[in-house]
Design goal:
With 131 residues, this protein is of the alpha/beta class. It is built from six helices and five strands, in the order βααβαβαββαα. The protein has a five-stranded mixed β-sheet with strand order 1-3-2-4-5, sandwiched between helices.
Length: 131
């Protein structure tokens, strides 16, 4: 089973020992999210308790993909959205699924690709599937 990554754990600690960067200093966190997306074949940004996010994770797990999951809650949703909007150029909705370092989409895009048969080849291309 996968372990969810908490957004606050991804941010570097400041000199004061806080894991959250000071307001207005989001560049270091942005670099980490960009690196996280680039370094992993599949990344899911999901809100805690969201049924659509749960469905996306179950679908990917059902295909044998072990995505990196970043849990987003009420406390960090604004920061994550701001940083993801810098990466993709627009504010994404949750769940936000990145495949091969690019925004694949949300639940509708993932389910549509699954139904049309385009999901598995895309996951293979990103090296998230080996078969």
């Amino acid at each position: 089973m996968q372990k969810a990554l908490h957004y606050r754990n991804l941010l570097p600690s400041s000199a004061g020992g806080s894991a959250i960067p000071p307001p207005g200093d989001n560049q270091s966190g942005s670099v980490n999210l960009r690196k996280l997306v680039a370094d992993n074949a599949v990344v899911v940004f999901a809100r805690k308790g969201c049924c659509m996010c749960h469905v996306v994770k179950l679908l990917l797990n059902g295909h044998g993909v072990n995505p990196t999951v970043v849990d987003v809650d009420d406390h960090n949703e604004g920061d994550v959205t701001d940083q993801l909007s810098r990466i993709v150029g627009a504010a994404p909705q949750f769940p936000a699924v990145f495949v091969g370092g690019e925004l694949f989409g949300g639940l509708e895009q993932v389910m549509g690709a699954h139904i049309s048969g385009e999901l598995v080849p895309r996951l293979r291309e990103a090296r998230a599937l080996w078969l």
